[in-house]
Amino acid sequence: MHRLLTRRGFVAGAVAAAFSTKALAQTRPDVLRFGLTPVFLSDDLALLDELKRYLEQSCGRPVQLVTRRTYQEIVALLVSGQLEAAWICGYPFVQFRSKLSLVAVPVWRGKSLYQSYLIVAKDRSVATVAELKGDVHAFSDPDSNSGYLVTSALLAGLASSPARYFSHTFFTYAHRNVVRAVASGLAQSGSVDGYVLEVLKQVEPTLVEQVRIVRRSEWLGFPPIACAAGLEQDERVLALGQALYRMHASGAGQRLLSALQLDGFVEQPPSLYDPISLMVAAVSRSA
Amino acid sequence: MKVRHWPITLKIPALVAGLMIVVSAVVTQQVISRLVDTQQRNLTALSDAYLAGISTSLVPHVLRGDIWEVYEGLERAQGLYPMLRPIDTIVVGADGLVIASSHPKTSPSFQPPPDDFVAELKGTDFARNEARNLAFAQQDLMYQGRRVGAIMASIDVSHLRQERDGVLMTLLLTNAALTLLLACSGYMIVRRMVHPMRILGDRLRAANEGPPQPIHASEMPRKGGEAYELFESYNGLVRAERQRQSLLLHVAAEERLASLGRLASGMAHEINNPLGGLFNALDTLRNFGDREGVRARSVALIEQGLKGIKDVVAAALHNYRPERDARPFGAQDLDDLKMLVQPEARRKGLSLRWSSELEGSYQVQKTPVRQAVLNLLLNACAATPAGGQVELVAKRVDDQVVICISDKGPGLPPAAMRLLTSEDAAPVGSSGLGLWMTRRSVSEAKGNISVTLRAEGGTTIRLSFPEVAEEEERERAVA
Fold it and tell me: What is the ipTM of this complex?
């Protein structure tokens, strides 16, 4: 079921995204177009409104928030210059390392790191990854680090792959949906973003109570805010960076950070995502 | 109580209730039958709409085998059809395996649909299992004229059963209330209608026990109706009967006076007989009173004569002034009667044969017994030709005082016999009044009369009086 993100596939996706985004046509040169992947906040319209207001106020310019169903669509828009910046995942960042630059990295629980979790239904008595063999497995997105790559790399380490290890796999295109799929029994196990699951514990405890974590991955670079390479010094990108770095300093920013359960945003070197690069390489070798 | 013995005030309401129950049963059956049909049509239409509505949005996802989107589509549809109550909705692919269902734990993906779906539907589009309160529906998913899968649903229809039960209960309660109302109304109406008949019936029943009573003006229905005319006729009958009774009693009194006259003439004779001797004794006393022996004999004769007169007078008084006599019935009463009848018997030249085994007193009503026996003795004297014999035999048999009076007459005519023995017989004119009065007297004393016509000629009339408790006797006397 899953689709590996190849360069050819990406170009096709970027073209498709370009054709389907006439709303993104640059009508005003000072508009900041900011893309959001469907990690978990893209379906919270109130939060999006608050983020838009904060960014417009902090950047002193109009801000257009752009959401799409898949990571691939957002990354395609970003790389093709139809977005000034986007909150993407570590996996596409390392995939398109040469075409993207880091703007800011969120800080969660004091670090810019998070984990990927393998989850099962709470009443299921499994303790190891080996026991998940033959499952119907739910992934978040084929371009998600925590929702696909980490598990693929883990299976590559076992000389296997999702297609061979699991009986069936499918993508839900949102980490919350992975939790729903496992909780409902649609999938027997799932790969989910650890940060999203921890936030959901607070927001939707009854949903999270229905699942159990079987494995936590090593700590990996938190999904970053990136811009297309060459736009680092664009004043809109610079303004966005400053707005993110200073978010903790204002009341509106603190409300946003509280809703996102983040400590703030900082500058980080691209090397933060080297472990993800190693996983990509491992998966490529296994394939 | 058997139904045919029920009063009409119960029969008609019961009939109304019975008819209502039959009508209710038919109406209820019709309504429930129509309701079931309507529910079935609505259920089929709703399930078709439900499946068709989901199908449209699911077909693209089914074509791509997108499990999550199919599941999301089913999840979104769950709340959109509150009238239908689908339990589990399953989407299967062209291979017949489940792509996704609304309840993945019971209908997991990549597995055949649950057995009950297959068993219930059996390839049809709709099936209903009444016992499980479930319905099953399915539709093919078509794309460009080709079947790409199917969508099937199990539907909770318990609310339809509840609705049906509710309607049934409402019908039953309403019909029961209506039946009760109509039965009560019927009872009230019929009771009102038969009320005059009931009054009349009560009066007629009471007339069987005692003298008929007229219907009081306060109980009379409004003028002009049939009941009013009926009541008027009844009251006219009562008036006529009362007049007849009054007349009969009057004639009876006359008759009694006539017999008293006859007795009085006999008694005068009885008194007159010793009077000659008494006057002789008085002359003897006047002329030879200075002789002690003559004086004592004359005084004894006078005393004997006066005693005879006293007995005759006392017997007459006992019979005609009973209230002055507080003694119970006994042998003395028969002696009195003998004394009263003897003059009549002598006058007609009859011999009187008297045989009484009674001694002391008995708990029977004295006055009516004396009256009845005297009447019968006088009748016997009248019926028996000169030189004949009238006989009285009195004895006690099985706690009863039995008195038989026999004559040597031509035999009691049948009409006279009926007057004596039948409660319903009444005298015509003044004929038979004595016998009618005798029967009333015997009835008053709770006695019985039997009449025997002897083969050798003559009649024997047997009177029997049961002895009653002293207390009862006293109560009757007080009453």
Answer: 0.84
Domains of chain A: 7-111+221-274 (3.40.190.10), 116-217 (3.40.190.10)
Give the integer Cα–Cα distance in Å for B224 and B274: 73
Tell me: the pLDDT tens digits for A217-272? 999 999 999 999 999 999 999 999 999 999 999 999 999 999 999 999 999 999 99
With beta carbons less than 8 A apart as the criterion, state whether A83 and A74 touch.
Answer: yes
Taking the C-alpha atoms of residue A87 and residue A225, their distance in angstroms, rounded to an integer, is 4
Sketch the domain layout of chain B as residue ranges: 3-165, 242-478
Please tell me the distance in Å from A139's CA to the nearest CA on chain B: 10
Q: Identify which of B68, B103, B110 has the shortest CB distance to residue A177.
A: B68
Query: Is the per-residue pLDDT at B266 higher than 90?
Result: no
User: Cα–chain-centroid distance for residue A162?
Assistant: 20
Q: Kindly report the CA angle at B73 between B72 and B78, in degrees rounded to 5?
A: 95
Asked if A170's CB is within 8 angstroms of B68's CB, the reply is: yes
Q: A184 and B71 in contact by Cβ < 8 A?
A: yes
Inform me whether the C-beta atom of residue A124 falls under 8 Å from chain B C-beta atoms. Answer: no
- Chain B CB contacts of A185 below 8 Å: 103-105, 108
- What pLDDT band is residue A1 in, cutting at 50, 70 and 90? very low
- For an interface test with A, give the residue of B68, B74, B95, B106 to mutate (most A CBs within 10 A): B68
Protein fold of B242-478: Heat Shock Protein 90 (3.30.565)
Q: What is the overall mean pLDDT for chain B?
A: 85
Instruction: Answer whether A181 sits within 8 Å of B68, measured CB to CB.
Output: yes
Q: Do B68 and A184 touch (CB under 8 A)?
A: no
- Count CA atoms within 13 Å of residue B47 on its CB side: 28
List chain A residues with CB under 8 Å of B76. Answer: none
User: How is the beta sheet containing A168-171 ordered, strand by strand?
Assistant: A168-171, A136-139, A189-193, A116-121, A211-216
Topology match between the domains B3-165 and B242-478: no
Interface test with A, best of B109, B110, B111 (most A CBs within 10 A): B109
d(CA A172, CA A148): 11
pTM of the model: 0.62
CA dist., res. A223 & res. A36, Å (int): 11
Residue A14: pLDDT band with limits 50, 70, 90: very low
The CATH code of the domain at B3-165 is 3.30.450.20
Contact A101, A240 (CB under 8 A): no
Question: How many Å from the N-terminal Cα to the C-terminal Cα in chain B?
Answer: 36
